[in-house]
Amino acid sequence: MKVGKNLSKIKTSKKGEVQFEHVYFKYPDADEYILKDISFTAGKGSTTAFIGSTGSGKSTLINLIPRLFDATKGTILIGEIPTKDLNEDYLHSLIGYVPQKGILFKGDIEYNIKFGNSLIKDEQMHLASDIACATDFINAKKN
Fold this sequence. Notes:
Elements: E1 18-25, E2 35-42, H1 58-64, E3 73-78, E4 81-82, H2 88-93, H3 109-113, H4 122-131, H5 135-139
Antiparallel strand pairs: 1-2, 1-3, 3-4
């Protein structure tokens, strides 16, 4: 059963904590792992940095938290709950994600704007695109 808006199972001391437990990742068609046996805890209110050369897996590691990719092995937890046990919309609502380089996630533009809250009204979505100065870019697209 996927956990939705009730995270009362998380101990107060663990809220806001992200933990990787022996996480491995490889792309579906790859022979080798990009990430191997990654374990760390990012505590609430702390700063955690990932440093490495281009192609070392920093972005891939970050993209595992909102489940843009799923770990091949191991567990990623928010609080004490594995991200795989969280409803995807709810998981996304817990995360503020600002990439260094602007990207679009899977799906269409509407999905990307509503990332974190798929229930927002279209008027709110249009307002968000106006605020982000993205309306001209969106209107230039076919679909």
